[in-house]
Design brief:
Number of helices: 4
InterPro entries: Membr_insert_effic_factor_YidD
Pfam families: YidD
Strand order of the largest sheet: 1-2
Family: Belongs to the UPF0161 family.
Protein name: Putative membrane protein insertion efficiency factor
Shape: globular
Structural class: mainly alpha
Distance between the termini: 39 Å
Subcellular location: Cell membrane
Radius of gyration: 14 Å
Number of strands: 2
Length: 113
């Protein structure tokens, strides 16, 4: 019997486009190299790197990258904490030309869960 794949990153299906492959590879490289030095003290679940990996895989490099960046900013001192999953579907007003709107993605379900 084959062993199930166990990974800290999201294992769901996603389109393997060049942007998504580059973005998820970059996050994975960070996880394997710098993550241990920068700290294992993320205040959210999933961790910021796992969130960014999943956001890029599900929503593409541009949208997922912005979501991941804003998640890292929220994770700092005085920031948010708790369970903060990647949304399955993005709202209609989240367009590529309005990246600042991705800041509110976590606020939709309540940041301080």
């Amino acid at each position: 019997m084959a062993q199930p794949i166990r990974s800290r990153n999201w294992q769901g299906p996603w389109p393997k486009t060049p942007g998504r492959l580059f973005g998820t590879a970059f996050v994975r490289l960070y996880q394997l190299t710098l993550s241990g030095f920068i700290g294992n003290s993320c205040r959210h679940f999933p961790t910021c790197s796992e969130y960014t990996y999943e956001a890029i895989a599900r929503h593409g490099l541009w949208s997922g990258g912005w979501m991941g960046l804003f998640r890292v900013v929220r994770c700092g001192p005085g920031g948010t904490h708790g369970i903060d999953p990647v949304p399955d579907v993005l709202e209609q007003d989240l367009k590529w030309w309005t990246p600042w709107r991705f800041w509110r993605v976590a606020r939709q379900k309540g940041e301080h869960s």
